[in-house]
Design brief:
- The chain is α/β, with parallel strands linked by helices.
- The protein has one domain (2-243): Alanine racemase (TIM Barrel, Alpha-Beta Barrel), CATH 3.20.20.
- 42% of the residues lie in helices and 16% in strands.
- It has 9 helices and 9 strands.
- It has helices at 2-22, 41-49, 60-79, 102-105, 118-130, 154-164, 185-204, 223-228, 238-241, and strands at 31-35, 54-57, 90-93, 111-115, 135-142, 152-153, 170-176, 214-216, 233-236.
- Strands 1, 2, 3, 4, 5, 6, 7, 8 and 9 form a 9-stranded parallel β-sheet that branches.
- α6 (154-164) runs parallel beside α7 (185-204).
């Protein structure tokens, strides 16, 4: 498992470096988020051991459970001097988030990619206040014409970003979007370019402040296009776990990076 996972990781790293060379990007400006929803806890432990420190889940309950289990494992490991201590990973909530899940999610999550309404943002703000913390979030934008995708409409995004930026316990750091599941290069590029244009518009209007600098665009089947459009986060599952024992074959397709 470890060898195959490391091979996949190195292959993805090389593709990221190659894309950065083509598009004059600095590879250090891009963070790979390993989407772990289709893999076992054993695989996640290996990821942490390999220093992949950014892990993504698309269900709040699974993120909470897995983060707690990994935290316990890291605690035991820290007490075992022969094993060597490892830092706690950063957990990313990348899927649709319901307001009634926010309270239990917040103690574990480091960045929420999928905020798409003022009501959800207000709940995150209220629960964050109770924890005396400021929660970083990304605004999810529906930049494609695919009806099944979540997110705020492009035309309404700047106004929503402005409203969220007034909430004291939230820090809005950028945008997230998904391209349609297609091999059509034009459609993918158009989605990401539209998201980038919106991002630049919000930056230009100084709606959200200097921390607004992240773009979460690009998954296993399209992350080079994401890099071209300025991605700072890539959400990658399928390409990372292909052929790895502990991954669920029935779930291993590109849409699972969501």
């Amino acid at each position: 498992m470890r060898r195959k996972l490391l091979e996949n990781y190195k292959r993805i790293e090389q593709r990221i470096q190659d894309a950065c060379s083509r598009y004059d990007r600095d590879p250090s400006s891009i963070t790979l988020v390993a989407v772990t929803k289709s893999v076992s806890l054993d695989v996640i432990r290996v990821l942490v051991d390999l220093n992949l420190q950014h892990l993504g889940e698309n269900r709040a309950q699974e993120l909470t459970q897995r983060a707690g289990m990994i935290n316990e494992w890291l605690g035991r490991r820290a007490r075992d001097l022969s094993a060597g201590a490892k830092p706690r990973p950063n957990w990313h909530m990348i899927g649709h988030l319901q307001r009634n899940k926010v309270k239990h999610l917040l103690p574990w999550v480091d960045l929420i990619h999928s905020v798409d309404s003022l009501r959800l943002a207000e709940e995150i703000d209220a629960q964050s206040g109770k924890l005396n913390r400021v929660t970083p979030i990304l605004l999810e934008v529906h930049a494609s014409n695919e009806p099944t995708k979540q997110g705020v409409a492009v035309a309404a995004a700047s106004h929503l970003a402005e409203q969220i930026s007034t909430l004291p316990n939230i820090e809005i750091r950028g945008l997230m979007a998904m391209a349609p599941l297609t091999d059509d290069e034009f459609v993918i590029r158009h989605t990401f370019e539209r998201t980038r244009e919106l991002f630049e518009e919000i930056v230009g209007e100084r709606i959200c402040g200097p921390q607004f600098k992240e773009l979460s665009i690009g998954m296993s089947n399209d992350f080079e296009y994401g890099i071209e459009a300025g991605a700072t986060y890539l959400r990658i599952g399928t390409a990372l776990f292909e052929g790895v024992d502990g991954a669920k074959p029935s779930l291993a397709h590109v849409d699972d990076d969501v």
